[in-house]
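Troubleshooting: if your tokenizer reports a length mismatch, compare your output against this known-good record of 516 residues.
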Amino acid sequence: MAENILDFKTFSQVTDARWYPRYHLAAPFGWCNDPNGMCFYKGQYHFFYQHYPYAPQWGPMHWGHAVSDDLAYWKHLPIALKPDAPYEVGGGCFSGSAIEKDGKLYLMYTGHLSATPEEEAAIGYGHIEFQCLASSEDGVHFEKSEKNPVIEDTDVEDKDISIHDIRDPKVWEHNGKYYAVLGSRTPDMAHGQILLFVSKDLTKAWRLKAISARSEGNLGGMWECPNFAEIDGQDVLIFSPMDLRTDDGTFYHDKAAGVLIGKLNYKSGIFKHGDFQYLDKGFDFYAPQVMQTPDGRAVIIGWLDMWNVDMHEAKDGWAGQMTVPRELHVKNGKIFSTPVKELEKLRKWKPITFGNLVIDEATTFDGVSGEAYELVLTIDAAKSQKFSIALRASELEQTVLTYNANGTFKLDRTQAGEVINGIASVREIQIEPQDKLKLHIFVDRSSVEVFINDGAEVLSARIYPKRTSQKIIFTPEDETLVIDSLEYYKLDFGLPHPHIKDTPEDLTKKFPFLKS
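Known-good structure output:
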């Protein structure tokens, strides 16, 4: 059984930790992508993720699993789900969510059944997706329901719904009933949409309530990884649209992750909403999962990567990592995203602080450098017309943040290290000019996350510098840079460090049960 994988040091395939994160979640070996099943159960935060344990590349999906007492320090648990049912052949156990009922933890996920090339030629399509349940008494060992699939393709026949693309259920309870939103598209693949299902008992008898929301043609041809939460009195639909238009500059990439803010009518199932808002305008952010913490906060973690681009860590035996946990708020109709307060527990060393700095040339500060740290800045933007901050910098490498008084903020990873093909290297956004510019920056061995003005905008990116590229350089590019306050924190290891193997082992020989 999958739970036999207990000693991750023994079975790690990581050959070099140069880019393996100190405090961002990542699989102990192999591949990971979408966050799944984020929840609080029996006194711990549980986080699952799409995982292929054989190799640092996508394959039939398993559910990896990690837990934390505080959202800062994590430990790995055994694989929770593996593709061993007829409705999971080929694709595996795709994304989903978690919910507690009667003391048990339930996982609701998508079984992805892939056709062989011969079958696809005969029937005209390549896959079908089903919705399934698994449950656990202890939050570690899961049994799949004998009633699976609980939602089948026949449940949406004769609707304006593609039966081949219905996935990633997010389940919650409301007034004694269970609801689930699923990502979908129209049969002509022109419109992404969200389906709302309802059940009286969770474990059976799910029915389609409505096509809750739909793209009008300008927001992608497929919506996946939907999440739903109430945030500051507003209903918020979180999802990841695909096939977005980039030719007219409307979107930065053909995939994104963002929100629609509005109101769900539980009687009709229709979600009325405003315009799409990005959760993160950086290069690498996708498929975020939301949960409500015991104190009522809405917290998300996203995949800090993007599809169809270079992931250079794969040559080291692993691929993919997550963002830091982020708290969501809605203010005046706009989504805000800030790092959770629990991350302060990683500040194990005395901070380095400065105040009232006036800089007139490229400047570094003693001790303000490294490969894994937190940087909190308040800059007098009224007196700093244009400036740059180079992160993970050396003579040859740097990841550069640039601000201009007209509100232009730029993230440039052109010289950040190993070149990332498949996506642009410069991301430029407009922010509302203010007298004070607040930056909250998290840097790890192969990632940068920048929270601007208390989370009004966020930019996230993967980078692949040499370990020796550790400088932070502050440069005024128009007279002076005035920094009201600077706080630097070196951050602790937030998850177990992988055991390094000189020669990778063949996991399938040690664990034949992992085979799909």
